[in-house]
Description:
Blueprint: E1 4-7, H1 13-20, H2 26-31, H3 50-63, E2 69-74, E3 77-86, E4 108-115, H4 124-138, E5 143-146, H5 165-170, E6 174-178, E7 184-189
Parallel strand pairs: 4-5
Antiparallel strand pairs: 1-2, 2-3, 3-4, 5-7, 6-7
Amino acid sequence: MKLRIEPLTPERWDDLVALFARPGASIARGCYCMCYRRSGRHEAPAGLAPSEDNRRALKALVDRGVVPGLIGYESDRPIGWVSLGPREDYAKLARSPVMKPVDAKPVWSIICFFVDAKARHRGVAESLLKGAVAWARERGATLLEAYPCDKPAGGVDAFMWFGAKPMFDRAGFVEVARRKPTRPLMRKPLRPSRRGSGRGGEGGDGATP
Length: 209
């Protein structure tokens, strides 16, 4: 599948909100990809629903120039999302028995995917992964890490938000650790592009895989 992949910037915020507002996105709009950015128990302010607290927190990141992920467009319609960034931006990873660091190398993490219910089973997640690899490389990342689910074909798992292992196999990721039978930790070394700037965070050109 060919998608136009763009970084989430303030100008594209409403596209992410529209994507998460659709049927089949209740978990996505409840979390707004903030779960792994926090460590320990987090309570929403009094009178504010957790979903709204998460939405505001992600919006605040975007408004100050952080690019927390990429949106996939088909004919200008947002149909997919992938969250990624420097591993240190995801505080919960350090405490996870499954996803804790294997070493001290600087690495970017791919955290989760979301695809519009009407666009699933068409290779959208795979296109988003290709876009994520390109984006990380352009931002100067030299190592990319993911935490997919390794289940039999057709298996259903709550951790499928992380993507399926075969998709990462095809993209050249290699398993480097497995602390739980169905949850490998996989990595892919990247050769930085000439435009790479190290950590990344501000907007940039869209990547079309």
